[in-house]
Each structure stands twice: as structure tokens, then as C-alpha cells.
Amino acid sequence: MSTKSKNKKLRIVFMGTPDFAVGSLQSILDAGFNVVGVITAPDRPAGRGRKIQKSAVKQFAEEHDLKILQPTNLKDEGFLSDLKSLRVNLQVVVAFRMLPKVIWQMPEYGTFNLHASLLPQYRGAAPINWTIINGDTETGVTTFFIDDKIDTGNIILQKTEPIFQEDNVGTLHDRLMNLGAKLVVETCEQIESGNVSSTPQKHFQNLRPAHKIYKETCKVDWNVHIDQIHNLIRGLSPYPTAWTYLINNGKEESMKIYKTTMENAEHDHSVGKLFWDKKEMKVAVEGGYLQLLEVQLSGKRKMTIREVLNGLTLDKNAHLR
Q: Which helix (H) or strand (E) holds 265?
């Protein structure tokens, strides 16, 4: 689909919540576009102290004196009236929740979303995690016009980004945030110029989803191949973090794993068996040994494995389960 007409004066409402969205909002402002309002999640209690915290987007919007709306119900008549009063003609969505039709159909020039994958692959809530967990070597970002399903609308623009062996979710997140921010601005410029085109998403048989990640998703299965375990840990670091049970001295405690390296080798040890000296620790798995570099024991801070070994006494049968 192609839309061509004279230049448009945009009145943009931006919708987003986490850090990933801040880069796009910053770039829209830096490009000189008129942001008439920002919609973000309500303030919520967070952390051990359960203190009320503002979203990253709200904090940024306050610093730049932008009008902020924080609806708990997107279909609330009062909120919809406030939104209409902004006379918005384009809505930009980055890392927000699913919108009802009454909202995404409201602006004259539509509502587009930035998604951190090369759609149609990895539709869903956690595309950056899953592309690393699945061992991909390339990903990217996509802008698309929102429709009534999740991440299925017509594609406007895409850019690719390599995934390096040393990447984890944190490093890839930051690169995609910056790449996506540029793509959002480019998309706004095309819409403003009246020269924007979009194409329906292709249908593939082997689409990989990016469903929400739960605690059990993060539990390491030591019975699978070394590559799968290493990629799971990369794909969950630094958040929400892979975890396992350390069995030591007859006790079981949870342990988060942030960073590993692979040592491919043949062996006949049982999977999960630990080997260590004063400086390093590795665990036997199918296909070799996984060197543990950064971990966090229950109730402790994140530490290098050398720091852990300085204060931990392991029995000869210590293993991970």
C-alpha cells in the first residue's frame, strides 16, 4: 500500500514505557517533530521497598515538559476524551501494551509500532531474548501499521542488525534501541512527506514466536546440548536471568547465571557435575564443559566465579540441577 500527498504537519502522540522506548522518543524530539502527548504506564510499586516508581518514559517526558497521560483502562471515556482533545494525527508506539481499535484507528495518518525483530519472525513480548536463545546470527527492527492482531500489520520499514557471539540481551537491546530510534524517525519523515508505503507481512510455515518469558522459562536444563544452554544464558542476561540449583553439602540453593563460555570436548561425566579450582568453575554438559564466569547465589550480589570460590566450600559431589 502506498500513500502519496503533500507534506503533513504532524501532531504526534508517543506511547511507550521502558528504557527501550526512550531512545525513540528522544530521537523524535531531536528531529524536530511536534510531540503533543505521551502515554505511558501508571506509576507502580517496585523493588524490595515497594516504592512507587515512574516508568522510564514518564521520567524522560517530565524532564522535557511533555504532556503525560497514564490510563489504567485504555477504553475509559475520560481518557479517550483527553486523547481526542490533543488533535493527534499520528501515534507512535514503542514497547507498550496492545491497543484497542478505538485508539489505533483514531489518528488521520494511522498508528505505527516499532518492533525489535524482523517481522513476521518473533511476534510477541520478548523478541530480543528469543532471537539469542534460538542462536540466531541476525535480527533487526521493524516499523509497521498496527491492526487488530499482535504484530501482524503492514510493514513500513526494516533494518537488519548482526548478532555477535559475545552478545547478550543487554548489548543487543541497546543496539536495537538505537537502530530502532533511527527507523522511527525515518518512518515519521516518510509519513510527514506523504510518501509512505507499506506491505503485508509474508506468511511462513516456520514462524518463531517471542512469547512472554516466565520463571520456568529461565530454568537451565543441563541435559540439552552445550550450545542451547549457552544461548539460553546469553538470551536471559542481564534480565530476567537464567537460574539453576546448586547441590552442595547436602543442601540445595538457587543460583543465577549471567555469563558463560563454551569448552567443546568429549567426556563421560554426568551432566551437571562441577569441576573447579581456586580460579574457575565449569560444569559438564553434552558436548563439553560450560565455564561459569558470573553468577549470583541466593541472597548474595552478582559476583565473578573467582569471588564466589573465595568464599564457598564445595564438596566432591557438588553439582548443578
A: none
